[in-house]
Amino acid sequence: MFQSIVRGSAAGAAGTTVLNAVSYADMAWRGRPASQAPAQTAEKITHDTGHPITGSASQQENRLSALGALAGITAGCGTGIAVALMYRAGVRMPWWLGGIVTGGLAMAAADLPMTLLGVTDPASWSGTDWASDVVPHLLYGLVVHGIVTTSEG
């Protein structure tokens, strides 16, 4: 089981790298800003739990940006671990379905907390907003599922 956790974490890290690269390429291509939703989610969580971020305004902004990014990395690696453990438990899917399901799990891990905390409302997203979220998560899913299924015995 430990090997599955390590493989899943590595697969999640690789998938997160791909997701970030695709997102940054989209930002460069379209000239769009980075999403503030991860930082806003971190701010809401820290405030609601009684641990508001301290420091000057710029330090708070930088800390929240970092916490949002770290939450994304954690979600990416955690999803990789979950997929590896499911694969170890016997859950087998064709590559394309496994990629979609894995990407959907990662997207839910990222978007569900933001939605539940009122940071974003996916019902208000445009088609371009959805594409900017779905495409990187789908590629994440294909990478993670591919690594897990080719490295697990």
Largest sheet: none
The low-pLDDT segments are none
Total discrete domains:
1
Strand content: under 5%
Morphology call: globular
How many E-type strands? 0
Helix and strand sequence? HHHHH
Radius of gyration: 16 Å
Amount of helix: over 70%
Structural class: mainly alpha
What is the terminal-to-terminal distance? 12 Å
Count of DSSP-assigned helices: 5
Mean pLDDT: 95
Task: Indicate the topology.
Elements: H1 2-30, H2 37-48, H3 57-88, H4 95-116, H5 127-151
Structure description:
With 153 residues, the chain is mostly helical. Helix content is 78%, strand content 0%. It contains 5 helices and no strands. The chain is globular. The protein starts with a helix and ends with a helix.
What are the salient characteristics of this protein?
0% strand; mainly alpha; 153 residues; globular; 5 helices
What's a quick, concise take on this entry?
By secondary structure, the chain is mainly α. It contains five helices and no strands.
